Fold:
Amino acid sequence: MNREYTIPELRKLLESAESEVEVCKMKIVVLEREVEKLGGTIPAGDELLYRAKQEQERLEELTDAVEQAAIAKREALEA
Structure:
């Protein structure tokens, strides 16, 4: 359902989203330190972007597979 927001509501939503982003950034820093502490290396630049895109594609494929399985199950139950 479409809903119109007031400026104060949008500002509040933006503040909330920005706060979430900051928390996520700090989690990334902590995780990077832990990986390095354990002897791993953090990919950077193009390598990190490439891996991120691969992971996004993998998750999209999994989502598609789950949706297809749900459709097949529904069709089997209807038959």
Summary: Helices lie at 7-37, 45-78. The longest helix spans residues 45-78.
